[in-house]
Amino acid sequence: MTTIDAEAAMRAALATIAPEADLDDVGADEDLQEALDLDSMDFLNFLIAIAKSTGVEIPESDYHLVRTRAGCRDYLVGRAAS
Q1: Which overall architecture, per CATH, does domain 3-81 show?
Q2: Cα(16)–Cα(79) distance, rounded to whole angstroms?
Q3: What is the pLDDT of residues 26-57, one digit of tens each?
Q4: DSSP letters of 4-56?
Q5: Predicted confidence band at 6 (pLDDT cuts at 50, 70, 90)?
Q6: Domain-by-domain residue ranges, the chain?
């Protein structure tokens, strides 16, 4: 998976959870939940949607690694490669 693929997966997942939210408005190191005004269930559904589309499962113990746009992207690229 490339960084472009990871970004596309995040955009697609976000569109199902919060269609009005725009990933382009989020800086690389901003907290996704805060920047996109996602509650904890929205964030969980976002991660589930990403897992379904990419096949990369994100265990709860790794949630802190995917809290930012860059973190989520890097996590997906790294996990898909292994």
Answers
A1: Orthogonal Bundle (1.10)
A2: 23
A3: 999 999 999 999 999 999 999 999 999 999 99
A4: HHHHHHHHHHHHHH-TT--GGGS-TTSBHHHHHT--HHHHHHHHHHHHHHH--
A5: very high
A6: 3-81
